[in-house]
Write a structure and sequence with these properties.
metal-binding; alpha/beta; magnesium; single chain; about 50% helix; metal ion binding; about 240 residues; HAD_sf; Putative hydrolase of the HAD superfamily
């Protein structure tokens, strides 16, 4: 039987929603900036210093300032540190109201009804990610010891170590295990290096990287993850 493990941010919920709400509160006067592009740049600069943040070499506060000031600079806008921090506080506040995407909820219900193993592997500070997991109500489907957070495990995607930790603790078979996530570099590459199969959530129409590593499946905008997983499970039963 296949097992499915998931990323959290921009996979289980729309990460752009709290970003948009915080932007509307503090920066809506910059109406010439394409919001989704700003969001993508903020993620790019966040990823750029993620390892330093994880190791404690860069304080989280400084990372938040860095990613937003650098993202605005792309559009020739200079914001102050205080503005970046005010935005971050609002962003975190709106994250307390995030909701599972309907297609994800349907996927989880299907897997639970069919006794399919589910888990979470997510990068980020332990407390912060746990708050999101609680807000999304994931305990309805996923056991607490099937949740692996980089801040707690001392290993982060795409390092295969965190995938190996999950595989060992959940007693998974790598060839029958799928990882679902939106980051090609972290989720697809990490899962494939661990010997897992990868489902790339590409609902933001990112360009396919020039890589020898390829996802096993791609979910584009308008596609249904739940329908794909049902097909994978049914095909597996027919083998």
């Amino acid at each position: 039987m296949s097992a499915f493990l998931f990323d959290v941010d921009d996979t289980l919920y729309d990460q752009l929603w709290p970003f948009r709400k915080a932007y509307e509160r503090y920066f809506k006067h910059y109406d010439f900036i394409p919001l989704e592009e700003l969001f993508r740049y903020s993620r790019k600069y966040s990823d750029e210093v993620f390892e330093q943040t994880e190791k404690g070499e860069l304080p989280l506060r400084d990372m938040h300032i860095y990613r937003m000031t650098k993202a605005f600079e792309v559009f020739d806008v200079k914001i102050e540190k205080e503005e970046a921090l005010n935005f971050q506080y609002a962003y975190e506040n709106f994250q307390h109201h995030i909701q599972l995407l309907p297609d994800i909820e349907e996927t989880f219900h299907y897997c639970k009804m069919n006794d399919i193993e589910l888990g979470i592997i997510t990068n980020g500070p332990e407390a912060h990610q746990k708050n999101k997991i609680k807000q999304l109500g994931l305990s309805r489907w996923i056991e607490p010891d099937h949740v692996f957070i980089s801040g707690a495990e001392k290993a982060a995607k795409p390092d295969e170590k965190i995938f190996n930790i999950a595989e060992n603790k959940m007693h998974l078979t790598s060839k029958d295990t799928y990882y679902v996530g939106d980051s090609f570099a972290n989720d697809v590459v990490g899962a494939k290096h661990a010997g897992w199969k990868a489902i790339w959530i590409n609902t933001r129409n990112k360009k396919m990287p020039d890589s020898t590593i390829q996802p096993d499946h791609i979910v584009n905008e308008g596609d249904s993850l739940s329908r794909l997983i049902k097909k994978i499970v049914n095909d597996h039963k027919g083998q």
